[in-house]
Amino acid sequence: MANIYYSGTSCFDGSPIEIISVEGLLTGKTYQDFDLNCLSLTYSASTSGDTNTIFLYGPFDNCSECNAPLSAGTETKICTIDCSGDTITIIPPHPTWTNEYGKAVVLLDAVVLGGINGLNS
To answer: What pTM does this model have?
Structure first.
């Protein structure tokens, strides 16, 4: 697989970036690297240089998608009756952890027990 020169912008501050990575990345898309930086690629060309960036996640359509936490499961919603007798929908807090690459993962089909500190509240 050949290495390709890519240029684009950082989603963090909009600064220009230049990298060399594996072929197959799509320009016009956004990727997240090992340092959890989201980079939007706008140009590519062949190069003989060595790879200096490997991407963990992507392609995303934009920076907002790239920066969003990963999620698993179907969103849990709870319907309940409030004090005035009206039915309301509550979206409870979900368990969140960090995966081995530092990316937040939200388990949408589970509910955190207790308060902010879990059962230690």
So the answer is: 0.63
The candidate with the shortest Cα–Cα distance to 32, out of 53, 13, 58, 6, is 58
* CA quadruple 103, 109, 112, 116: dihedral sign: positive
In single-letter form, the type of residue at position 69 comes to P
Q: State residue 115's pLDDT score.
A: 63
Copy the structure tokens of residue 97. 């952890």
Q: Which residues contact 84 (CB under 8 A, 6 or more apart)?
A: none
Q: H or E stretch including 48?
A: none
Strand partners, 8: 17, 41
* Residues 6 or more apart in contact with residue 34 via CB below 8 angstroms: 54, 56, 101
The pLDDT assigned to 99 comes to: 80
pLDDT of residue 61: 94
Q: Which residue has the higher pLDDT, 103 or 27?
A: 27
